[in-house]
Amino acid sequence: MDIENLQIQIKTFFGLEQILAEEIKKLGGRKVEIKNRAVNCEGDLGFLYKINYSARTALKILVPIHQFKAFNQHQFYDRLFKFEWDEFMDVEQSFSIDATVNSETFKHSQFVTLKMKDAIVDYFQEKYKKRPNVETRNPDIKFHLHIDRELVMISMDSSGDALFKRGYRREQGEAPINEVLASGMLQLAGWDGKGNFLDPMCGSGTLLIEAAMIAMDLPAQIFRKRFGFQNWKNYDADLFSKIKEFRVNRVRQFDGKIVGYDIDARMLNAARMNVEAAEMEDVIEIRKQNFFDSKKDLFPLLMVFNPPYDERISINDDDFYKKIGDTFKTNYPNTLAWLISSDLEAVKKIGLRPSRKIKLFNGKLETRFLQYEMYEGTKKIHKLEDKS
Hints:
The chain is α/β, with parallel strands linked by helices. It has helices spanning 17-26, 45-54, 73-81, 109-128, 179-188, 206-216, 237-248, 265-277, 320-331, 344-347; strands at 6-11, 30-35, 38-43, 60-69, 95-102, 141-148, 151-157, 196-199, 258-262, 284-288, 301-305, 335-341, 356-362, 365-374. Residues 47-158 form the THUMP domain.
C-alpha cells in the first residue's frame, strides 16, 4: 500500500455527492471525482485519517487494495488465494467481509463472500499453519468486496463502524433522521453557523446537534472511540494524534442561537439526553412548543426540519401540512425554511411554491428536500431550481 498516494473511495447518500466533494476538496483531497453515491479521490495516510475524523457527509471510507477479472468461481477463488493478505492483516486478527454484487456470473453475495472468506483463511493456513477468525460483529479488519460483472474490487474499510454513528445519540425517536443525512441537509440549506437556527419539530435532536457541530466547526467524529484504520498494520498513532489535535484547535465560538421545538414530552427528553451527551447544553435550547402556535423570535433565521410523513409516523390530522404553510405565512416573515418529506401530495397543502426541490433518500424512502422563502408584504414566486 502506497501511503503517499492512496486511492480512496468515500461512500455517501444519493443527493449528497456534491456536498461531500466540496468537503473533501476543503480537507485537501486530490483528483476529486464525483460518482453515484460516492466520491473518489487521492491522498496520503494522514489525509485518510483526517477525512474519517472530519468529513460530515461520509458514510464509510474505502481504500482499494486488489483488482482483477474473474469469469467463474474457480478464477475468483484462485486470484484471491494467491493475493498476499499478510501485507494487510495478521493471522491473529479477526476479519469480516461485506459485499456488493452486480453480476450475471456471480449472482449471490453470500456465496462470493463465503468463497472470499475461504480464500483468505486457506492462504493463512497454508503459509502459517494457523487460521484467522471471521468475526461479523466487531472485527479487527473489515474488507469490502465489490463485483461489477467480471470486475472484482477488494477494498479495506478504514472507518470500521459506519460514520453516521457519531457517538452522541443516547435516545432516539420513532423515526430518527440519519446523522449523515441531517448534516447533508443542513449544508444543502446553506447553514454555516452565521445567524440563528430553528428546528420546529426537533424529535430526538439530530438536526440540532449537527447544526451546532457545523456552527462550532467541531469534527464530525469528535465523540468516536475507534476507527477501522487503527487496526491496520501501517497505523501511525502519533500522526493521528497530531491530526486530531490540529483539528480540535480550529473549533470556534458560536454566538447565535440553535433552538428546537417539540410537543412530545418523550421526544423532548430524548433530545435533551442527546444534547447532554454531545456536551452542547450551553449551545442548544430545547423548548416544549407547538410550532403552529409559535412566532418568529430569532433574527436572522434559518429553519430546517423533518416533519412526520405517513410512511414514517402516521398523521391523523389531514390539515397538518396546511398548518405548516399557514404558520410560515403568518408567523415567520423573512425566513428561509427547508423541510424533507416523502408525501408529495400532502406537501402541496402547504400552499406555497417551493423555490428549490432536491431529491434525497431517507432510508429507502424517496423524498424531496424543499426550500420555502417567506417574504413580508409582497409574495415573490421563484422558479424551481432543481428538477424533482
